[in-house]
Amino acid sequence: MRDAIFHGETFLVNQLKDNGKFVYGYFPARQKVLSNYNVVRHFSSLYALLEAIPFTNRTDDYKKVKAAIQWGLENATIEKEGAIFINDNGELKLGGQALLMLTLSKYQDVTKDDTFMPVLMKAFKGVPFFRQSSGKLIHVLNPDLTVKAAYRIIYYEGEVAFALSRLYELTHDQAVMDLVKQILDYMVANDYGKYHDHWISYAINEALLVFPDNREYMKLGLKNVFIHLKFIEERDTTYPTLLELVDAAVKMTDMIKRSGNEDLMAPYDLVRLRQVLRYRALYEITTGSFLPEIAMYLYNPQKFIGGFYARHDSFRTRIDDCEHFLSGLINYYNYTYRQA
């Protein structure tokens, strides 16, 4: 597993071109390079690298990540009303706002370089533009800040709650904490646990560091994984976000135990959850990692070794595929083998 993470970090950082932009991805089975580009995934892939570099200790790679952040800020953001937004082909996405904050927060946390703090706080100022008076979050705005799509994908709420929680840990800004709580309370009131989204689990874990006795957040996080456990056990594609979901859920159950709220877990099979965690981690490596004995069948084997693929989609390997595999495996390894 360590080798898969080391090779995966090498592969992903090698997709960064000199100008800081990624090679977005490939269809190796078709000998095709993807020509489109998603700037939200640009930042989320940098976040995964910022998780991977402390694991591999290849600290020189921080320079490449910093250059890539700068490319993203120069080529894919706009400033409106004193706030900075990711502009993804004319769309300002709540998820983009989240991943921008998450990546900049992670960069400062691991490097102790506060270069991007002014940008980070301007990104935070953009979040209220996505929020209605009812507490409901708008998913997509036009560049003039009018509403383009009230809803796009369920991931966005969890992403922004997670990003704001990380920002609060960095700044201890009361305004950030207040906004996190408002969003989480809305998610509780509207039963977001039914969505089994890995970003929600990440968000709950971070929130419990800020609000360690909030039983409603705990209930939300538990429902978010356990209603989906059978699907996770039986899923035959690698689906790397499933490992991320179970990673976060196992960590959350341990946090709940330590908080003295163990009664909330009485209806759930915690042993089964840990069994699923190990199964998904090993399954990802054996069915989604470009090991040499898999890459040897491709048109340029050396090019793909270390990458991760979606077998059901012509062995597609995009930067966001690699991002989710790396995050899931790193969090699994760190929590399973590196706990003090």
Please tell me about this protein's structure.
60% of the residues lie in helices and 6% in strands. The protein is mainly alpha-helical. The strands form three sheets. The protein has a three-stranded antiparallel beta sheet. A three-stranded antiparallel beta sheet has the order 5-6-7. A two-stranded antiparallel sheet has the order 3-4. A hairpin with a 4-residue loop joins strand 1 and strand 2 (32-33). Helix 1 crosses helix 2 and helix 4 packs parallel to helix 6 (155-171). The mean pLDDT is 95.
Overall body shape: globular
- Helical segment tally? 15
- Proportion of helical residues: 55-70%
Report low-confidence residues grouped into runs of 5 or more: none
What fraction strand? 5-15%
- List how many beta strands DSSP finds: 8
N/C terminus separation: 19 Å
- Major β-sheet, in short? 3 strands, antiparallel
Q: Structural class of the helix and strand makeup?
A: mainly alpha
Strand order of the largest sheet: 2-1-8
List the topology elements.
Blueprint: H1 2-14, E1 25-27, E2 32-33, H2 39-56, H3 61-75, E3 77-80, E4 83-86, E5 92-93, H4 94-111, H5 117-126, E6 140-141, E7 147-149, H6 155-171, H7 174-189, H8 198-210, H9 215-226, H10 229-234, H11 241-259, H12 270-288, H13 292-295, H14 301-304, E8 317-318, H15 319-337
Antiparallel strand pairs: 1-2, 1-8, 3-4, 5-6, 6-7
Helix pairs in contact: 1-2, 1-15, 2-3, 2-4, 2-15, 4-5, 4-6, 6-7, 6-8, 8-9, 8-11, 9-11, 11-12, 11-15, 12-15
Question: Could you give a quick summary of the protein structure above?
Answer:
The protein has 340 residues and is mainly alpha-helical.
